[in-house]
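S.,

As promised, the ribulose-5-phosphate run. Input:
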Amino acid sequence: MSEMKIKAARKAVEYVKDGMILGLGTGSTTKFAVEEIGKLVSNGYDLVGIPTSIETEKQARSLNIPLTELECVDRIDLTIDGADEVDPNFNLIKGLGGALLREKIVAYYSVNEIIIVDESKIVNQLGTRVSLPVEVTQFSHKKTKESIEKLGCVAQLRGSESPFITDNGNMIYDCKFEGISDPYDLALKLNSIPGVVENGLFLDLASHVVIGTKNETKVLE
Ligand code: 5RP
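Predicted complex:
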C-alpha cells in the first residue's frame, strides 16, 4: 500500500515548479509528497507552503520548507492532498485524518488541487466505502448530531475514550450513509444546520487525481 502512495505522491510533485506557493495537505499519502517537496527545497527551489494541519506544519518545518499563511498570499498555485473516496466526477470524501476544514479552505483558494490516492479509494458513488466526516462545534454537539441524522445517516462521535478534537477546537461526527446519491444537495443541507462547521464532501475542487496502482501511476485531469 505504501508503495502505491509513494508512486502517486512522486507523480504529483512533478507538477511543482520553482517559485510556487503550495498548499500542503494532510495524511499518510500526502506525507510522502511533503517529503519530496522538502527535497526540492534542499535542491534550491524557491517554494512556500501553506499547511492544512498542525501535523503537516510540523513535518514541513522539520524539512525546512518555508511556510506562510493564506491571508498573506493572493493565490495558492497548487495543493497536493489525499482523499478517502474519489468518484468518477472527481468529487471526494475527505476528513478521515481530521483536517477537513483547513483542507477545504485551502482547496477553495487553490488554482490546482491534485488529489493523490491509491486505487482502493476509487468508488462509483460517494459514501459507499467510508463514513462522511462532519466537523461540528463542541457547543450543543448532541443536538447537532440529531439534526444530521435526520438527513438519513447514523452519526458516530469520533474518539472512543475521549472525543477527537480538531486543530480548530471542534469535534467530528462520522456519518454512515448507505451511499450519497446527491452530494451537492447533502452538502448544502449539512452546512445549513447550526453547529455544523464544515462537511467532508469536496465537490468541484479537485483538478487532477493521481492514482497509484501496483503496476502504474494514472493521472486523470
Ligand atoms: C485528512 C484527509 C486525508 O487526506 C485523507 O484522510 C486521506 O488520508 P490517507 O492518505 O492517510 O489515506 O482528508 O483530513
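Residues 11 and 210 are 7 Å apart (CA to CA). The chain has two domains: 1-120+203-214, 132-198.

- D.
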